Amino acid sequence: MNSAKMNLAKQLPLGAAVAVLACSVVAVTPVTYAQPNAAALVAVSPAIEEEVEVTQAFVGTVMPSKTAVIGSAVDGRVIEFPFNAGDRVEANEPLAKLLTDTAQLELTAAQAELDLRRQELAELENGTRPEEVEQARARRIAAEARKTFVAAKLKRTEQLYEDNQAISEEERDEVVSLAVAADQALIEAEKSLNLAELGPRDEQIAQARAQVAIQQAVVEQLEDRIVKHTIISRFAGYVTAEHTEIGQWLKRGDPVADVVALDEVEVVAQVSEQHVQSIRLGLVVQVEVPALPGRTFTGTVIAIVPQADVQARGLSQ
After folding, report:
1. Less packed terminus of the chain by CB within 10 Å, N or C?
2. 312 — phi, psi (to 5°)?
3. DSSP assignment letter at 265
4. Using CA atoms, how far apart are residues 99 and 75, in angstroms rounded to an integer?
5. Residues contacting 197, CB < 8 A, separation 6+
6. How does DSSP classify residue 313?
7. Cα–Cα nearest to 238, from 76, 68, 88
8. Please, what is the angle between helix 130-163 and helix 169-198, to 10°?
9. What CA–CA distance (Å, rounded) separates 152 from 150?
């Protein structure tokens, strides 16, 4: 009689899965012996090699893929809390809203200040308008004419004072003072005209841009604060616990609700030590849930935790 050869390949399931044991078997050739004193009859069958699946079940625990205690990022009073335990919440859907009246007023004022800063920057970047240059030129012409007039008056006054002292020294000093003022006015008018023709300095424009950036940061900070007054869930799931209610004052970090994600779940199973060697990442297993009779789910081994249970003598998969 030929000997049998068995090739074992084990597959381990996740949770309440069925482990598969694949076997390769070489069939034994059957032999029939004839009765004594009779002709021998021999029946021969061809050897067939095929895999035989053997299952092994392990008990596991279904765990949510995500669990979070959603808290408040700012201080505030709850004005909306529309969810109850057991309700489904979608990703980025508001769980609760806090009062924002004061923050909204601050934001409005900050946005108005930002608009002012932007207009000032635009005025500098656009440079001096042609009308302003013409005004500066007109003031220079007027100052120059004033200087010419006062200079002529001063000349006549000096002549009268020196010839026969027809005027007093006080009157002469007054005209001298007017001449000095006229000279200074002309100098100022000329400088104003030069500045108008050159336009704003680069440093002034840079300072205005910095003021706009600072005010923009203030606005964004207030907007972020208002956004945080709306408490959202970062993923879709179910509310499992409520920690607040309408009218309650929340401090920063206070819990609002517990949310768990059940669209995808993880099954943690304790695997006995004699089957540990058959575990590998990516292994496809079948999962059966007693609460859902007649349905079988397909899972994949995503982690092997090398932490043995002393009593169960198994690993968590």
Report:
1. N
2. -85, -15
3. E
4. 10
5. 128, 133, 136
6. T
7. 88
8. 160
9. 5
Number of H helices, E strands in the chain: 4, 15
- Tens digit of each residue's pLDDT, the chain (317 residues): 333 333 323 333 333 333 333 333 333 334 444 455 555 566 677 777 776 666 677 788 888 888 999 999 999 999 999 999 999 999 999 999 999 998 899 999 999 999 999 998 988 888 777 777 788 888 888 988 988 988 888 888 888 777 766 777 788 888 888 889 988 998 888 888 887 777 777 888 889 999 999 999 999 999 998 999 999 999 999 999 999 999 999 999 999 999 999 888 888 888 877 777 777 888 888 888 888 888 888 888 888 887 766 665 555 55
Q: How many CA atoms lie within 13 A of 36 on its CB side?
A: 0
H runs (alpha helix) in the chain: 101-126, 130-163, 169-198, 202-228
Residue type, 122: A
**Size of the chain, expressed as the number of residues it contains:** 317
- At 228, the amino acid letter reads K
C-beta separation of 208 from 121 below 8 A: yes
**In the numeric block, which tokens belong to residue 49?**
């090699």
